[in-house]
Amino acid sequence: MRYEHSLDALNFFLADVRQGLGPYLAIYLLTERHWAQDQIGFVMTIATVCGLMVQTPAGALTDSSHAKRASIVAAALVVTGASILLPFVSSFVLVAGSQAAADAAAAFFGPVIAAITLGLMGPRAFTRRIGRNESFKLVTRLRRRLLEFAPGSMGRSSSSILSLLWLCYRS
Fold this sequence. Notes:
Layout (H helix, E strand, L loop, with lengths): L1 H17 L4 H9 L5 H28 L3 H18 L6 H15 L2 H40 L11 H11 L1
Helix pairs in contact: 1-6, 2-3, 3-5, 3-6, 4-5, 4-6
């Protein structure tokens, strides 16, 4: 039962990290950095393609690894570091590189969580537990959406990134 609660917490808190900045990146680059929409789309495309290219190797590395908890921590640190780096870099290459690294690291979350779940719960309870993992992930997304639309949750254009970081800190 202790493992159940640990997996619940992991899925609840990791759901925000999984997506990185996602749609906030486009808004930030458009309103704060005044980037053209084609540049924003290209950065997001580069990041998505990198994440897709890493998915299969991420699964293979996860299967061969004995340090699955360390893999989760390392991936979360890369995604967080890439997101924190954004206000301090302005070149296209650095922004695209940071988001590519974030999406590549996020590709590890699914396989690692599945491997940890299988290891802790066993094959008989795996299907039920994966459903529960997804439930906690969706509850976190719902909570985040509700916070986005709360009055004053997203600040004026000059403080939008600070508001975003505050929301991430509060979650």
